[in-house]
Amino acid sequence: MLPPSAGTKYLALEPTTILVAFVIAIITTFILTFVFNKDGKKLKQRAVTCDVGGEPGLAKRNHRFLSLVETPWEGASTLAFLFEQACHQYPGNHFLGARELIKQETEVSKDGKSFEKLTLGKYNWVTYGQALQRVTNFASGLVAIGHQKGERVALFSETRAEWMLALQVFMLS
Fold first, then answer.
1. pLDDT at 160 over 60
2. Strand 60-62 relative to strand 47-49: parallel, antiparallel, unpaired?
3. For 5, what's the count of Cα atoms within 13 Å in the CB-facing half-sphere?
């Protein structure tokens, strides 16, 4: 910090003065917003309430569409089919990303609680095409060990990319 030159005066403000100025600035902003919002004109409309049965007001749709979008693509009637279509349409695009674990440490804080500290590296991406190949291989493996269509499957795992791929397998079978 440079030393003040001769004749330089500084204005010292009290914390309460700064707080009052801040509150006045916020209140002024809100007042001006309402003054310049002519005729109570609605701000940007993003969703429109639509009637789909049940409790009114819960279902919303994008204001740019005239009706609810039932399927994002023609013929995509299930999540499994939607996944397959996306994989065929965007085989080279990123689908799932996971960061590599470089280091994992357990630290104890002053109050005695311990917590894990993770050092993560760069993202490793799986493309839609690679994901479809892994899902297909996993499904083929289930069939090879005797899994039948309609049988139940349980998946116990932390949330991770492989869990998502396994979920796609189970929706296909």
1. yes
2. antiparallel
3. 0
What are the residue ranges spanned by the domains of the chain? 71-172
Q: Rg for the chain (alpha carbons), in Å? A: 29
Q: What is the pLDDT of residues 31-74, one digit of tens each?
A: 887 777 766 666 666 777 877 777 777 777 777 777 767 777 77
Helix H or strand E segment including 126:
strand 114-127
The token pair at 89 is 């349409």
Residue type, 82: L
User: Nearest-CA neighbor of 173 among 137, 139, 141?
Assistant: 139
**139-156: pLDDT as tens digits:** 999 999 998 888 888 888
Those residues whose C-beta lies under 8 Å from the C-beta of residue 93, and which sit 6 or more positions away, are 127, 128
